[in-house]
Automatic annotation (TrEMBL):
Residues 11-87 form the 2Fe-2S ferredoxin-type domain. It comes from the Bacteria. Keywords: 2Fe-2S, Iron, Iron-sulfur, Metal-binding, Oxidoreductase. Pfam families: Fer2, Fer2_2. This is (2Fe-2S)-binding protein. Gene3D superfamilies: 3.10.20.30, [2Fe-2S]-binding domain (1.10.150.120). GO terms for molecular function: 2 iron, 2 sulfur cluster binding; metal ion binding; oxidoreductase activity. Pathway: Alkaloid degradation; nicotine degradation.
Length: 184
Protein backbone atom coordinates (compact mmCIF):
# COMPACT_ATOMS: atom_id res chain seq x y z
CA UNK A 1 0.00 0.00 0.00
CA UNK A 2 1.36 3.39 -0.92
CA UNK A 3 1.67 6.02 1.74
CA UNK A 4 0.60 9.46 0.78
CA UNK A 5 3.36 12.01 1.14
CA UNK A 6 2.55 14.91 3.46
CA UNK A 7 2.30 18.26 1.74
CA UNK A 8 5.49 20.27 2.17
CA UNK A 9 5.75 23.75 3.55
CA UNK A 10 4.68 26.36 1.02
CA UNK A 11 6.32 29.72 0.62
CA UNK A 12 5.02 32.83 -1.09
CA UNK A 13 6.91 33.38 -4.35
CA UNK A 14 6.67 36.70 -6.17
CA UNK A 15 7.92 37.10 -9.72
CA UNK A 16 7.20 39.64 -12.41
CA UNK A 17 5.68 37.61 -15.20
CA UNK A 18 5.23 39.28 -18.57
CA UNK A 19 5.44 42.65 -16.86
CA UNK A 20 2.95 41.90 -14.07
CA UNK A 21 3.90 41.11 -10.46
CA UNK A 22 2.43 37.72 -9.55
CA UNK A 23 2.52 35.95 -6.19
CA UNK A 24 1.56 32.38 -5.38
CA UNK A 25 2.48 29.90 -2.68
CA UNK A 26 4.79 27.10 -3.74
CA UNK A 27 6.68 24.27 -2.11
CA UNK A 28 10.44 24.85 -2.14
CA UNK A 29 10.86 21.95 -4.61
CA UNK A 30 8.29 23.35 -7.07
CA UNK A 31 9.85 23.83 -10.49
CA UNK A 32 9.38 27.12 -12.28
CA UNK A 33 7.64 25.27 -15.14
CA UNK A 34 5.03 23.84 -12.77
CA UNK A 35 4.74 27.18 -11.00
CA UNK A 36 3.90 29.15 -14.15
CA UNK A 37 1.61 26.43 -15.51
CA UNK A 38 -0.24 25.28 -12.43
CA UNK A 39 0.06 28.11 -9.91
CA UNK A 40 -0.12 31.06 -12.30
CA UNK A 41 -2.27 29.41 -14.97
CA UNK A 42 0.08 30.22 -17.84
CA UNK A 43 -0.09 26.94 -19.74
CA UNK A 44 1.67 28.20 -22.85
CA UNK A 45 4.95 26.94 -21.40
CA UNK A 46 5.11 23.26 -22.34
CA UNK A 47 6.83 20.49 -20.44
CA UNK A 48 8.31 17.60 -22.37
CA UNK A 49 11.33 15.76 -21.01
CA UNK A 50 11.42 17.42 -17.57
CA UNK A 51 15.18 17.05 -17.43
CA UNK A 52 16.64 19.85 -19.48
CA UNK A 53 16.97 18.16 -22.85
CA UNK A 54 14.12 19.21 -25.14
CA UNK A 55 13.87 22.97 -24.55
CA UNK A 56 10.04 22.99 -24.71
CA UNK A 57 9.84 24.62 -21.29
CA UNK A 58 12.18 27.51 -22.09
CA UNK A 59 11.25 30.86 -20.55
CA UNK A 60 13.29 34.02 -20.20
CA UNK A 61 14.57 35.13 -16.81
CA UNK A 62 15.77 38.71 -16.97
CA UNK A 63 15.98 38.21 -20.73
CA UNK A 64 18.09 35.05 -20.65
CA UNK A 65 16.65 31.72 -21.84
CA UNK A 66 16.40 29.07 -19.13
CA UNK A 67 14.86 25.62 -18.96
CA UNK A 68 12.12 26.18 -16.46
CA UNK A 69 11.93 22.46 -15.63
CA UNK A 70 15.43 22.78 -14.12
CA UNK A 71 14.82 25.96 -12.13
CA UNK A 72 13.06 26.10 -8.78
CA UNK A 73 10.30 28.67 -8.55
CA UNK A 74 11.76 30.05 -5.32
CA UNK A 75 15.00 30.88 -7.12
CA UNK A 76 13.08 33.11 -9.55
CA UNK A 77 11.84 35.21 -6.63
CA UNK A 78 12.15 38.90 -7.51
CA UNK A 79 13.15 38.29 -11.14
CA UNK A 80 11.49 39.15 -14.45
CA UNK A 81 10.08 36.08 -16.17
CA UNK A 82 8.86 36.13 -19.77
CA UNK A 83 6.75 33.24 -20.99
CA UNK A 84 5.41 32.67 -24.47
CA UNK A 85 2.26 34.55 -23.44
CA UNK A 86 4.43 37.66 -23.09
CA UNK A 87 5.85 37.66 -26.61
CA UNK A 88 2.90 39.29 -28.35
CA UNK A 89 2.66 42.93 -29.32
CA UNK A 90 -0.88 44.01 -28.34
CA UNK A 91 -0.49 47.42 -29.99
CA UNK A 92 -0.09 45.92 -33.47
CA UNK A 93 -2.72 44.75 -35.96
CA UNK A 94 -1.89 41.07 -35.61
CA UNK A 95 -0.95 41.31 -31.91
CA UNK A 96 1.91 38.95 -32.75
CA UNK A 97 5.53 39.65 -31.94
CA UNK A 98 8.18 39.36 -34.66
CA UNK A 99 9.15 35.78 -33.83
CA UNK A 100 5.53 34.68 -33.73
CA UNK A 101 4.84 36.34 -37.09
CA UNK A 102 7.90 34.69 -38.58
CA UNK A 103 6.73 31.25 -37.39
CA UNK A 104 3.35 31.86 -38.96
CA UNK A 105 4.77 33.14 -42.23
CA UNK A 106 7.43 30.42 -42.54
CA UNK A 107 5.15 27.53 -41.53
CA UNK A 108 7.64 26.75 -38.78
CA UNK A 109 5.35 24.58 -36.68
CA UNK A 110 3.25 21.50 -37.07
CA UNK A 111 1.91 20.04 -33.81
CA UNK A 112 3.19 23.10 -31.95
CA UNK A 113 4.31 21.31 -28.82
CA UNK A 114 7.89 22.54 -29.13
CA UNK A 115 6.93 25.99 -30.38
CA UNK A 116 6.78 27.99 -27.10
CA UNK A 117 10.35 26.94 -26.33
CA UNK A 118 11.55 27.90 -29.80
CA UNK A 119 9.78 31.27 -29.64
CA UNK A 120 11.37 32.22 -26.32
CA UNK A 121 14.79 30.88 -27.33
CA UNK A 122 14.78 32.78 -30.62
CA UNK A 123 13.50 35.96 -28.96
CA UNK A 124 16.56 35.93 -26.71
CA UNK A 125 18.80 34.82 -29.58
CA UNK A 126 17.99 37.70 -31.90
CA UNK A 127 18.15 40.17 -29.01
CA UNK A 128 21.76 39.06 -28.58
CA UNK A 129 22.51 38.69 -32.29
CA UNK A 130 20.09 40.82 -34.34
CA UNK A 131 21.59 39.81 -37.71
CA UNK A 132 22.28 36.07 -37.54
CA UNK A 133 23.77 34.20 -40.47
CA UNK A 134 22.09 30.95 -41.47
CA UNK A 135 24.77 29.00 -39.55
CA UNK A 136 24.19 31.18 -36.49
CA UNK A 137 20.45 30.61 -36.82
CA UNK A 138 21.09 26.86 -36.81
CA UNK A 139 23.28 27.24 -33.70
CA UNK A 140 20.64 29.42 -32.02
CA UNK A 141 18.09 26.59 -32.05
CA UNK A 142 20.53 23.71 -31.58
CA UNK A 143 19.34 23.07 -28.01
CA UNK A 144 15.65 22.75 -28.85
CA UNK A 145 14.07 19.56 -30.13
CA UNK A 146 11.23 19.34 -32.64
CA UNK A 147 9.80 16.00 -33.67
CA UNK A 148 7.74 17.29 -36.59
CA UNK A 149 9.23 19.97 -38.78
CA UNK A 150 12.74 18.86 -39.74
CA UNK A 151 13.98 22.30 -38.58
CA UNK A 152 14.41 23.89 -42.04
CA UNK A 153 11.44 26.19 -41.70
CA UNK A 154 12.41 27.04 -38.12
CA UNK A 155 15.81 28.20 -39.35
CA UNK A 156 14.00 30.26 -41.98
CA UNK A 157 11.82 31.69 -39.20
CA UNK A 158 14.90 32.76 -37.23
CA UNK A 159 16.21 34.72 -40.21
CA UNK A 160 12.77 36.17 -40.93
CA UNK A 161 12.17 37.09 -37.27
CA UNK A 162 15.48 38.96 -37.21
CA UNK A 163 14.34 40.99 -40.23
CA UNK A 164 10.91 41.65 -38.73
CA UNK A 165 12.44 42.72 -35.42
CA UNK A 166 14.62 45.19 -37.33
CA UNK A 167 11.55 46.70 -39.03
CA UNK A 168 11.99 44.94 -42.40
CA UNK A 169 8.63 43.33 -43.11
CA UNK A 170 9.77 41.47 -46.21
CA UNK A 171 7.88 38.21 -45.69
CA UNK A 172 9.67 34.96 -45.16
CA UNK A 173 8.38 31.64 -46.31
CA UNK A 174 8.86 27.94 -46.08
CA UNK A 175 12.36 26.75 -46.91
CA UNK A 176 12.79 25.59 -50.48
CA UNK A 177 9.60 27.23 -51.74
CA UNK A 178 11.07 30.29 -53.36
CA UNK A 179 10.68 32.51 -50.32
CA UNK A 180 12.73 35.65 -49.95
CA UNK A 181 16.26 34.87 -48.90
CA UNK A 182 15.96 31.11 -49.34
CA UNK A 183 18.80 29.42 -51.19
CA UNK A 184 17.98 26.78 -53.77
S1 LIG B 1 10.80 19.98 -20.38
FE1 LIG B 1 12.41 21.26 -19.77
S2 LIG B 1 13.99 20.86 -21.21
FE2 LIG B 1 12.42 19.41 -21.71
S1 LIG C 1 6.05 21.13 -34.28
FE1 LIG C 1 5.66 19.20 -33.33
S2 LIG C 1 7.37 18.92 -32.02
FE2 LIG C 1 7.85 20.71 -33.12
Amino acid sequence: MTESRPAGRRLPVTVTVNGVARTADAEPRRTLSDFVRHDLGLTGTHVGCEHGVCGACTVLIDGDPVRSCLVLAVSAQGHDVTTVEGLGQPDTVTELGPVQRAFRDCHALQCGFCTPGFLTTITAGIAENPTPTRDEAVDMIAGNLCRCTGYQNIVEAVLTAARYAAGDDTPGGPAGHGAAGVEH
